[in-house]
Amino acid sequence: MARIELAGLAHSYKSNLSQPSDYALRPMEMTWQDGGAYALLGPSGCGKTTLLNIISGLITPSQGKVLFDGRDVTHLPPEQRNIAQVFQFPVIYDTMTVGENLAFPLKNRGWKQADIDKRVAQIAEILELSGELKHRASGLTPDAKQKISLGRGLVRPDVAAVLFDEPLTVIDPHLKWLLRRKLKEIHHELKLSLIYVTHDQIEALTFADQVVVMTDGEVVQVGSAQSLFETPEHTFVGYFIGNPGMNLLPCEWRADGVQIAGVSTALTAPTGLAGGEGKLTLGIRPEYVQCKPSQEAGSLPARVISARNMGTHWLVESQLGEHRIAAKQRDLHPVHSGDTVWLSLPAARTLYYVNDKRVA
Amino acid sequence: MTRSGFSRFFLVVFLIGSLLPIYWMLNMSLKTNEEITGVMTMWPAHLTFDNYKVIFTDESWYSGYINSMIYVAMNMVMAVLLALPAAYAFSRYTFLGDKHLFFWLLTNRMTPPAVFLLPFFQLYSTVGLMDTHIAVALAHLLFNVPLAVWILEGFMSGIPKEIDETAYIDGYTFPKFFVKIFLPLIKSGIGVTAFFCFMFSWVELLLARTLTSVEAKPIAATMTRTVSAAGMDWGVLAAAGVLTIVPGALVIWFVRHYIAKGFAMGRV
Amino acid sequence: MNKTLNNKAWWLVLPVILSVAFSAIMPLMTVVNYSVQDILGPDQAVFVGMEWFKSVMRDQDLHSALWRQLWFSLAVLTIEIPLGIGVALTMPAQGWRASLSLVLVALPLLIPWNVVGTIWQIFGRGDIGLMGKLINDAGISYNYTGDSVDAWLTVLLMDVWHWTPLVVLLCYAGLRAIPDAYYQAAKIDGASRLAVFRFIQLPKMRNVLMIAVLLRFMDSFMIYTEPFVLTGGGPGNATTFLSQYLTQKAVGQFDLGPAAAFSLIYFLIILLFSFVLYTWMQRVGTGDKS
Q1: Does B78 touch chain C if contact means CB atoms closer than 8 Å?
Q2: What domains, with CATH codes, occur in chain C?
Q3: Does C251 touch chain B if contact means CB atoms closer than 8 Å?
Q4: I need a labelling partner for C139 at 20 to 30 A (CA). Which of A144, A153, B34, C103 fits?
Q5: What is the pTM of this model?
């Protein structure tokens, strides 16, 4: 089993580094608990696959160390790290049967045939592939093939962590759910560490205990789905998580309170904020913006652009000055586009960011 | 020796062996006929550029070059464009007679082109396309299109259909999927196909000579003129050989990124 | 792959069929036409049915030429395919070295075939040729104009030099089309280099190898220019392969009738062997359907 630590880890594909943007992965420290289920979430190109490949050993980082249970594995090749990796598309050996596929890693380690058969049967059982063992692997459906890919990783008893690189990309949508459920089962049964790379927040939030959000080579937040939702530490997390993402409004801090687009709100800036330094951005999730027909203390007038009934809730987009604000709420008084509504921003749900990092 | 050291050694030995006759051809091109047929020298004892002069000063050589390049380029583009949809069909669909059709395509390469000389001559005379570039380009489609379809189909079949389906789910229209996702995945296949179409059309003598006389006369045809009354003009022939390598080398240089590594399957 | 049934796919292949059939059908009809007639003079033709076919099949010289051809094509395939795969495996995958290797490897393919023969004519000469002189200086007696075996070997070597690059380029492109993930997975599975070749590279080269084998078989079976220029078919008829034999007969002795019949038989032989090769390779490739 493995506790994975990343110490001072950074990676660049360039040889001379002059600026932060030269890094594919900016310097980071991180610890992944043994047996945890983690998701690496971020848009294309943010470095999550690079990070995954460094953990698995397919890439050697240009800086820093990777430790498994305290052991420095930074320069060890993948086969010596007790990890398994599942890729974006099924990687199987076409010329072999399902059984031979699963047996392959054990054969390479010199196991006795009887032991191999036993172990393969065991894993096939867990993955519900027992009936297919004698069939040619190439004839199976993609989701079955991904199970074989996974199986080849699980078949080694000393496997400590399984790494997934967007494994559901080529799976039919209605089968994705089944595979995800199977992964959770395996997590509980075999108590392995699972690290799952995805750009789909739903996948990440439903699969993982802890989500690592990345953008542009940088890890911006690690936390549970709830903490990512309620307290995004970075504007990117606010924007990326949630549908629609968090409202991010430039605001000014004055002695008498916070102003957005010149309009005073009822909010007082939290103590300790030295005004004027850097961009002060106010963040509030649409779920917490209240859209009312009449003015209240501190509420902001905004012009409705659109109001849509999404079934379970209403989604109102309105404009305040040059800023767009989204509000999401269960019930809504009748509005039409062009109307004026009054938006209330509860202080308890309002967060402040300077230079994209949360300060209050 | 390490395994990769052995690989490198093997490749270098192969390349040297492969380049020897080419070096020899270059050698011959810089010698006089007397020296060629007289003694064996690794490098010309009397270096001469006369052979090249003959080629460059003779107007029909120069225009022959251009003519060849024109119809070969036409053929290359046509063959690949025609083959792409057909190869996709063979790769993704089954339809009535598909297996027979696929094999039938290849059978067009199973006859020595000599068989086609007379019929082609009659055909192109009748439609008034004699001595045009397009005639040779069309005639060469006979053997290049089947080749292109076969090669492209092979590469397309290596891409799982799930990629197509995922793209449609993501909202791609077929043209957008084909151009933005599919073609980059078979880059190496397109590269070799383009090169082979170029190559087979470039070196084809018989048909090209039969269908042309003055306007579109290719270089390959003028090269067989080097058997003159005085005997074989070795030096000029060798020089012509050297010169005919150049366009092909350029073509493969241009498609090198298509053929060599350059893509990663799937999205980041 | 699971292909979907869709007869509309015919539209996609129609342009190809038209462009090829347009060129192919007419000559075919002409040849079939001639093959069953005795052309005594212009407008004087007598229908002779299968006469020509029978006499062609009985021709002893044809049988010898056919055997020579079969052995030649077999030798060509046995050498060029493994050699081609081997070279493709050693070529770098990217960078300037890859580009350079590609260009250098491809050069022999670009020389017009009559020039190929001409170059080797001098190259192989014991007195004025680099290769000939080296071999003779090494103590081995070598004379491709006088000795049949030497002539055979020289033609074979010339073909290997000329056409192995075709196999190399096809295999190289095929190798480049294998996604990285397969190699990565093999690493994680602890696979040996040989296992990677056997279970990943070779299976994934199936398609290009089939094309390479068929192409080299067909083209070597029809070979004409290079050996004709190099040896003229000699010494004697040691290197007179089928294509040259056909031309000799058509130009020299027969008239159009027997030549046309011969062409058809020639075509059918290639067709038969190609079909057998094709079906056999398909079966080997995909194995038993479960």
Answers
A1: yes
A2: 46-281 (1.10.3720.10)
A3: no
A4: B34
A5: 0.86
